[in-house]
């Protein structure tokens, strides 16, 4: 889809408030949640548990196949994600949100993967990405679109975080923490033809609607139990730039800025320059249409981590493993691991 179709006007505080008012019973717990700050030694130990080689060979490379919604590759990758999560010792509850929807290519079967660490916990920190790839015809050389940045790398990062922090997450679950981690792997993010309200975000639209109707506890729904929705997209290209998109979650974005600087000072980031930081403070960047949108419109607080401007390889057959930057993938994994560990007090 053309970038102009996804890049919207600048988000205002008034617009954010109006989205939240559409869900008048939305709890304010997310406004007062206080994360735990990790010491320098704790950050070093935490980041040492990440394994870039495992992320790359075990999780990323198997995903670098054609996997548009409804394709055999899509089904295989979905099964792969489910199998990897079920193999972890933290005993995740892994469910499929399966449905059919009409597309420009006819009726297509979709399935989101919903993995919840502790279903009994009241609140959820959501980390999300999409696992489908955009449909492109094969070129004259037989090449297909594999969407390395879009969004195989985000999927691989989430699986690596769950694996590297498996022991910590299992311990948090055993201690019956009030907040837990939920991983969402969306199907059908990509448009089959032209990006529109009906030809895009198939999985996110369906799951947001379903969660908004499903009772949880304390008189709230599964949707209202989301304390923060962190969406990863277009990750893995060199020298990415991330902007703050929403005023309501600017405090969490500031935390990412701080964590990147701390990890840099500790010498824990590879090929990373103080003059070329990933996370940038400044005025709000225009909203970008993505899987968070159906949740945002229902009042869920969102932190949208998408490289802006988009990588040069975006929606081309060059979005491959060869054009990924390993240090960037490793550095982002460390920053996100630190953010997750502090938020959940692991």
TrEMBL record:
InterPro entries (UniProt xref): M28_QC, Peptidase_M28, QC/QCL
Any GO CC annotation of this UniProt entry: extracellular region
Major subcellular location class: secreted
Record's protein name: Glutaminyl-peptide cyclotransferase
Superkingdom per UniProt: Eukaryota
Root EC class: transferase
Subcellular location: Secreted
């Amino acid at each position: 889809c053309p970038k102009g179709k996804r890049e919207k006007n600048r988000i205002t505080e008034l617009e954010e408030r109006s989205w939240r008012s559409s869900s008048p019973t939305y709890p304010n717990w997310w406004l007062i949640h206080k994360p735990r700050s990790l010491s320098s030694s704790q950050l070093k130990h935490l980041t040492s548990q990440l394994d870039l080689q495992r992320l790359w060979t075990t999780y990323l490379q198997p995903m670098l196949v054609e996997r548009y919604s409804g394709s055999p590759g899509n089904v295989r990758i979905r099964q792969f994600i489910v199998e990897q999560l079920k193999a972890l010792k933290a005993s995740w509850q892994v469910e499929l949100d399966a449905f059919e929807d009409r597309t420009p290519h006819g009726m297509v079967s979709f399935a989101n993967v919903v993995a919840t660490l502790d279903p009994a916990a009241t609140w959820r920190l959501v980390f999300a990405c999409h696992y489908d790839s955009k449909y492109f015809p094969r070129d004259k050389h037989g090449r297909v679109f594999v969407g390395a940045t879009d969004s195989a790398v985000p999927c691989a990062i989430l699986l690596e975080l769950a694996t590297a922090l498996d022991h910590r997450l299992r311990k948090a679950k055993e201690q019956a923490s009030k907040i837990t981690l939920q991983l969402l792997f969306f199907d059908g993010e990509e448009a089959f033809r032209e990006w529109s309200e009906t030809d895009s975000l198939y999985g996110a639209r369906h799951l947001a609607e379903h969660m908004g109707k499903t009772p949880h506890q304390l008189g709230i729904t599964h949707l209202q139990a989301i304390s923060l929705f962190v969406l990863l997209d277009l990750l893995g290209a060199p020298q990415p730039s991330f902007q703050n998109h929403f005023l309501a979650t600017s405090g969490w974005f500031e935390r990412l800025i701080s964590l990147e600087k701390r990890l840099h000072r500790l010498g824990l980031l590879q090929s990373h320059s103080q003059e070329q930081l990933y996370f940038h403070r400044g005025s709000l960047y225009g909203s970008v249409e993505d899987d968070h949108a159906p949740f945002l419109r229902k009042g869920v607080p969102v932190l949208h981590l998408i490289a802006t401007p988009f990588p040069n390889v975006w929606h081309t057959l060059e979005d491959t493993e060869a054009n990924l930057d390993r240090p960037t993938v490793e550095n982002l994994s460390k920053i996100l691991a630190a953010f997750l560990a502090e938020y959940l007090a692991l």
